[in-house]
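hey so u asked for the seq, here:
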Amino acid sequence: MKAVTFKRNVAIGAIILLVGAFGGARIALGDTVYVDHEGLCDGNTPCYTTIGVGINAASNGDTVYVYGGTYYEHVVISKPIHLVGENDETTIIDGGGSDDVVRVSSDSVFIREFTITNSGTTSVEGYWDSGIELDYSDYSEVMDCIFTLNEAGLCLYGSSYNTIYDCRFHSNTAGIVFSEAYPGPYQDNFGNRILSNTIDHNSNQGIYFEHTFATYHHSSVLKSNSISYNGVGISMIMSQENEICCNTISGNTGYGISLEMDIGGGQYNKFHHNNFISNNDGGVQASAYSEGVATNYWYSEILEQGNYWSDYTGPDMNGDGIGDAPYDIDGGESQDLHPLMALFMCGDPNGDGISGIADVIYLINYLFRSGPVPEFLSTGDANFDGVVDSADVLHLVNYLFVGGPWPGC
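ran it, structure tokens below
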């Protein structure tokens, strides 16, 4: 027993050392410009008192570092920079109740550690006052931010390959909106990633794929988000080939997911390994209405595993964790053919409902000591690369001890 424990500890210790050596946040290149509303900047220079002036002074690739405080301004970013706040709760950009608070019109902009609040209140098809507007911006990232009291927390227009990660969207009209700039130019929102966000208590939608005239919201991934207590969890119109997986969607007043197909939109979307809990006041938790020509998948075709539905009452006669009867989606055209009998949690191969060091040990035993196979093998695929291997152990340790990304699925 002592020898086994020693080997286990050596394995975990080695992984932690590797994570410490190679894990961590993105390293920004270029110079740093400092902003402090009090003009102090801890003695660092150059030092400015408003974010807008600091951005104007920065060059491509520079970092604009903003000290804590409330900045009453509308920020425009038209060059590739890093905009970094001191702390997401104490570094606040307040739009004063008008227009967008932050507008990004460049590719490769990185924003993190801000509270962004108090946009205007306009929301018409093709235009939303927003906390952050990504306006034809590609390859940008927004991380570790708080969005509150905006019309839309964050809105994308013709923007692709962006990542929204580990943010909180609460008490907005809508949390995240995929829109289309009217009257153009028309360009799809394509290949965006919405990962590990908390989206709650937004009065209309948690995430909204808005109706469009000439474009689609296409090939995005919504994964590992907590979407709760909104009007509707996720509302999707004119949306194609998106993947919605591993989210917990709970307590929303309306549907957890509402999918509408219009003029050929709303097809080939995939919904799997989500937890739907007590949405729609206890009624059916998802809807899919179409013109009769749409195909969407409410389960993983490869794994033959669907979603967990708290109101599902079908049997599981063989005890494999998959319901024997389908779960019917409102609208009469869609079903989850492989509903899960229990909550699904990524990074929880031992099935105890917690992602912790016991799961690291479980994976090490499975991979290297012929230990038991996880009931759902996909729960061990923490880095979402389709393979359960030592990289998943590394991913879990990174998450647990170094503040790395949440387990995927």
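The chain has three domains: 29-190, 231-344, 347-401. The CA atoms of residues 158 and 187 lie 5 Å apart.
lmk if thats what u needed
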